[in-house]
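ok so for the tutorial part 2 we go from a plain amino acid sequence to predicted structure tokens. step 1 is just haveing the sequence, like this:
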Amino acid sequence: MCIKLLWPTSRNSRTIYAQKESVCSLHGLACQRSLRNWRSRIQSATPRYPPAPLSALSEELRNRSRRLPRVWQLFFSSNLRACSLSERPVSERAQLDTEHHKHGKHRPPPAICDILVTVDHNLFELVESAWQQYDEAPREHIVTPSMPILFFGDLAAYERSPLRVVSVALNPSYKEFPKEEPFQRFPGAEKISSPLAEETASKYIEALSGYFSTKPYGRWFNPGFEPLLQGMGSSYYGGANVALHTDICSPLATSLTWSDLPQTVCTTLSKTGNELWHRLINRLDPDVMLISVKKAYRDEIKFKALMDWEQFHPIDRERPYHFYVRRYQLLGGKTTVALFGQAAQIPFGTVSGSDKCATGRHLLELIHV
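step 2 — the prediction. this is what the tokens look like for a chain of 369 residues:
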């Protein structure tokens, strides 16, 4: 869902996006009262001339949304992404008036602001970008048939989670699309192709969201990230905090492992894949990122670093294993904690399940400090 707050000044309009997968509708007197209350709050908090800095307005909305009942918090994620828009043309405003009249919706006075509920275009654009990368990729190195995997896991459950955790690796394995039945992990997705309409994009998101409830590649996820997630009170498979998995280099499953691909192919795929991953993380707005890749790929993270990498909870053994933590600031101002450790066949591959679980508990303590 995208909520747009438009200030009808002569030269500037401001839009604040609050993305949510959940679809809500605006109706009833209670809804109108709440919207009027929000408009008065926003107007009192933000001088009309000159317009307030977008970062300050974003923070104000974020703080106020926490005080709302849960049903109203659905309209605001903690990742409010602000951007400027050119002034809407008169013809578009007239069309909006007509639409409001048709559906019997109350239209607020233009001197305050307009609140419009639309589809989550930010997520739709991410889906479109993933499919564009799939269509333009060198076919000889991409699993066929397959599809781009923007993320793995239940998006709606993730967004309801008090603690949002995202795991990060390189790119999907070719084993995500077994030869005998390529789409067994994504039932219903075999008929999806680009260009995507919004209805088709919704089916695609549903297929991704159902991954861990169908036939996930458990031999990789379960010994890899899952023990660390469970130490944090999170899991891919359900519970109070549902995690998602993402890939920093590419959303495309390649016919060879990433390390065995020609360097030119890796460069081509990661150029667009890394940019897409950063946009996705801004959309997902995680509290924690669990990263298990080579240091060279870790250093491709371009979010604003708030500190250097610091050693964290080393595993004391004959050949010690070192975790590292760092805090990043996302586009909307959110601070996220990143935990990094080297991979070996599987994420944090040389660390036992019990040590991963203990590390997760220590990381949870760090977050709550």
